[in-house]
Amino acid sequence: MIDKIKQLLDYQAVDYESEKVEKAVINCEERRAAVQMKKKIEAIMENRKKLIAMLEKLKNELASVEAKCTELSAQTAQCQKEIQNDGEDIDKVENDLKRLRRITDATAELGEQIKQIIIRSQKADKMLSEQTANANAARDQYQACKQKYDERLKQEMPAIEAAKARRAEAAKNVDPELLKKYNALRANKQVPTARLQGSTCTGCNMMLPSAIVSRVAAEKEIVECENCSRILYI
Predict the structure, then answer these.
(1) CB–CB of 231/192 below 8 Å?
(2) To pair with 38 at 20 to 30 A between CA atoms, which of 69, 150, 182, 189?
(3) Does an H or E element contain 26, and which?
(4) What strands lie across the sheet with 231-233, from one edge to the other?
């Protein structure tokens, strides 16, 4: 059992060294710059999406207002025609004139709405053009950053592959069930093993019952911490 624990600890050392090599590339400045630029592009594209939706909405609003203007224009023509026909009837003419004024006021109000829609559309269109230019510039910057990262990755790949090979070779010496337990603990982002100091697990700093301490000391079986589940060793 001592040999199994030793083999596991040897594997753990190789495993963490391999992870260190991989993280050095993952956390390198070149990759961080590329990731940051990619996020910038995504943010710009999201803004463009919103602006495009806004322009579509304004387009529909404009079409709706213009349709109302067309309807009022027809009413204006009809009202003017009725004024001509009612030329000798003063009461009817006065009523026609009042209706014409209401139509004229409504038309003027719609005209102001059209003006505001056009202003908002022009502003949104300008912002969309700016965002498009920003997106193009960001893409160029991203490609430059990615190229630098790809070059860095190419340089580091032999070291990464060598570390992976050492880890795979070391895994062959570990008991399969023990390795399975180890990998399950690693998946939870914790160190899978812990030294037992006295009656304390150095992984979680909890004191363990004497029965567990005795089992670990006997070195006849694999013992796990009852609190953090780490594999214990002396």
Answers:
(1) yes
(2) 189
(3) helix 2-26
(4) 200-201, 193-197, 231-233
